[in-house]
Specification:
Elements lengths: L8 H18 L6 H14 L4 H14 L6 H14 L3 H12 L8 H18 L3 H21 L5 H17 L3 H12 L7
């Protein structure tokens, strides 16, 4: 079918998504399919209010083509999209999978910080105090492990880690440690970067 004389961005995205869907279903064994799935997921990501659809599209790529070089970034984007949709349990699972990939990739350290952050988001939303404390402690354990293997000196990354750690301490019922860590984060504020 033809597009209207003045197609909207949504019309163009829908047409492109349909094309990618047809191509991937008609030729599932093609070496171009992972790239097509990636592009399809990026289209969903660009459309407002379609965070869950985008996350699922990135998941499809990772699930159907686990040997693709696009898998680490697909897992990262799926986790970020689930996070934007406030589906923090799902985001946690994607970041955990990304952090546990057997080969090193450029997102190895970032995945662990995002995993810790996702644990604090789950803790914050928990109504059960045991679940809250458990997830806060998981976040602290992930951050401890991350600092053991990657003690970055990048000011922006140090600040992000301290902020997540402070939130985790607060949720774990350790307000003094939370404030102490928040002070450390302040030392890495924009004036020092």
């Amino acid at each position: 079918e033809d597009l209207a004389p003045y197609p909207t961005q949504t019309d163009l995205f829908a047409r492109a998504a349909t094309g990618y869907f047809r191509a991937t279903t008609d030729h599932p064994k093609s070496t171009l399919v992972p790239g097509a799935l990636w592009n399809s997921a990026r289209i969903e990501q660009a459309m407002p209010g379609r965070e869950l659809e985008a996350a699922r599209a990135f998941d499809r790529l990772a699930d159907q083509y686990p040997e693709s070089d696009l898998v680490p970034e697909a897992l990262l984007q799926a986790g970020l999209m689930f996070g934007r949709a406030n589906a923090w349990d799902e985001a946690t699972a994607r970041f955990d999978t990304l952090a546990g990939l057997p080969t090193y990739h450029e997102y190895s350290a970032t995945a662990r910080r995002l995993l810790a952050d996702a644990h604090t988001r789950v803790a914050d939303a928990a109504r059960n105090p045991l679940v809250r404390e458990e997830n806060a402690r998981r976040a602290l354990l992930v951050l401890d492990a991350l600092d053991d293997v990657d003690s970055t000196q990048d000011p922006a990354e140090r600040r992000r880690r301290y902020l997540v750690r402070s939130r985790a301490y607060s949720l774990a019922g350790q307000p003094v440690e939370a404030l102490r860590t928040l002070d450390l984060a302040a030392q890495y504020s924009d004036r020092r970067m």
